[in-house]
Every structure is written in C-alpha cells, then in structure tokens.
Amino acid sequence: MPTVPSRPRREPHRITDGVEPKHVQLRSVLATMAATELLPDSAIPSERELMERFAVSRATVRRAIEALIGDGVLQRVQGKGTFVAPPRVRSHLHLASFTRDMRRRGLSPSTRVVRVEAAAPPDDVARWFGLAPGAPAWRVERVRLAAGEPMAFERGWYSPELLPGLDRHDLAASLHELFAREYSRPVDSAEQSVRAEVADAALAHHLEVRVGDPILAVDRSSRSEGAPLERVLSHYRGDRYELYLSLGDTVPGNPQHHPRGGNHR
Questions:
Q1: Residues 167, 173, 178, CA angle at the centre, nearest 5°?
Q2: What is the DSSP letter of 8?
Q3: What is the third-level CATH fold of 89-244?
Q4: CDD domains attached here (predicted)?
C-alpha cells in the first residue's frame, strides 16, 4: 500500500507518569495524529520511532496501537506496517440500493459478478418462494465495490417466477433498478437481520481481508407487491462499513411507526 503524503506535523503532548497510564496517553496522542496530521492510508511512525519520540517502552507502544486497531482508527497490513484506516462508509437503515447509496457518499460504485445460475435453493429459501422441493431459483453471487475497493459480498436467491430470464440481463448494475425497469417489480418492502461474523477463506478472498477478520452479515428478505422476490445474505467488511440507526419516540403499533429495511442492493 503506497504511503500518502502527510499533513504538517504538530508537536505532540508529552507522555508522563501520572494517574492516566502511559499506553492510554499514547493512544490519545496517536488518535489525534491520525485525525489531524496523517491522511487515510498513511503509515504511522514505526514502533522504534514512537519509543524514542515519546520515551516509552515497546509494550506501551504496542498496547496503544492494538487498541486503535480495535477502534478502527488504524489498520495493520501484513509485511508492510501500520496505517491510518480509511473512514468507514456509514449506511442508514433505509430501503435504497447500494449503487445510489454509494453515489450519495461521493464513491463510485461497481460490481463484480461471480456466479449466475439456476439451482435448487436451500429448504428455507424454497419455502420462502413457495417452490416445490428441488425446484430451481436464480442464484447470483456478486462482489460490491466502492471506489474500486471490495465492500460487500452478496449471495442471493431470486424468484424464478417473477424474474424469468434473469441470467440474460446485465447483473453488474443495480438489481433493484433492473427489477423495476425490466420486470415492473420494484422492491417495496423488506425484512432483515444483522449479526457479527468472521471471514472464512471464501469471504476473505472476495473481500480482500484476512481469515478471521470481523464481518457484518445482513440477511434480507424482499417483496414486491407482497410477492417474495429475493433472499440475500450480504457480508460487509467490518473495517469499512457500519450501519446507522436513528431512534425516535415512535413505537411499534403507533400509526407513525414505519419499519424500514437496509440498503445494500
């Protein structure tokens, strides 16, 4: 990863003995450095440089750095060093496409199609679509990218009844826009669950992360005019993506309460 030119360096605070442990003081200094002096993807000073600059032990330096990696402020690249992590993409929980969502954030979206085929879905997906055992549905696997960087890997099942000939279309663009334009089947409702997972070998390959890295899994079921349209499991990079939910004073059952799905299609 290339080193990006840094902003002008400010004189840091001194690390001293006191009530606050040294590693906590250094963590604060490095966080400020990452936010005000260094640009995203810039390398931070080496452990030796930090030891000499702040007169602290290697253990103190490593503890501060590990804490900031855990916070998502820094990221370690195997064999290269530790860098300022790029800002995460924040996604509000609403019903919108990945493509439109990334464009709103000034990021260029793109898609790499991995697999498109008719295949027998798992039993729970077959029941969702109302298919007989062994009947095929469309299976589509895609890597979603923002500014050329993998952001999510999707494993999706799509209705064979509502979307005939799906494999003849360009599936590298927004599927929701395709459904509305070519099939008159806009997605108008969805349910989803979100959970934390870790990357297995396949996800690590598609998302360009390490096996065991944190992953955000979003399981989504979407309908069009009440008819089951898609079942999609999306895995997002935990270091680049976060979901944001604004909670108001409405409650379920209140006429003003409008549940909304997530945005990752």
A1: 65
A2: P
A3: Chorismate lyase (3.40.1410)
A4: WHTH_GntR (cd07377)
